[in-house]
Amino acid sequence: MLKVQEIRELIKLVDQSSIDEFVYENDGSKIKMKKNVSATYVSQVSAVPQENKVVSTPVPQVVAATAPTVAVHEVQQQETIKQADTTNLHKIVSPMVGTFYASPTPDADSYVKQGSSVTKDSIVCIVEAMKLFNEIEAEIDGEIVEILAKNGQLVEYGQPLFLVKPE
After folding, report:
1. Most C-beta atoms within 10 A of its C-beta, which of 52, 58, 124, 125?
2. Mapping DSSP to helix (H, G, I), strand (E, B) and coil, where does residue 119 land?
3. Domain coverage including residue 64
C-alpha cells in the first residue's frame, strides 16, 4: 500500500502531466486518478489485514486546481443523501468474524438477491468461521434493498451485510 506522501507525489505528477486518467493496482490496492478542467480526483480502496481481519477503507481526496470547495461540497451532499436514504432500512449484520458466502455451494444460486422478499426466518447468507458454516437469518420481514458484502469477502463482527426495507 502506498504511503500518503507517495500518493501526494503521484497527484502532483499527474496534475503536471498531459494525461487525463491514471490507474495503479498492487496487492489488492487500487488507486485511480482522473483529471478534468477544475480538479484532480483521487480515490484509493485497499484491503488492509489487521489482526486476522480485513478492513476495506475507501479514501477519497480532492486536490485543488481551481474550485475544490464545490467538489468537496458535492461529495458531502451525496453522502448526506445516501445516509438519509438508509435511515428507514434495517441492517442485517454479521454476528461474527468470518467469510461471507451468498449461496450454500459455489455452483448454487444465491439465497437472496436485490429485490428479494424475506421473512424473519429466511436464510440470507452463510458466514464461515473456523470451518463452521453459520446460516444467517433475516430477522425481519421485508425486501432486500442492497447487498453490502461480496461473495468470499472477509467480514467483521457487526459489519452490515444487507439493507432490508421492512414491511
Report:
1. 125
2. coil
3. 4-86
Q: What do you get for the CA distance between the two ends of the chain, in Å?
A: 43
Q: In terms of domains, do 63 and 132 share one? A: no
Both 13 and 43 in a single domain? yes
Give residue-wise pLDDT tens across range 90-139. Answer: 899 999 999 999 999 989 999 999 999 999 899 999 999 998 999 999 98
Measure the CA–CA gap between 88 and 67, rounded to whole angstroms.
35
The two beta strands, 160-166 and 90-93, are antiparallel
pLDDT tier at 42, thresholds 50, 70, 90: low
- 68, 86, 104 — which closes off a domain? 86
What's the CA gap between 105 and 126, in Å, rounded? Answer: 10
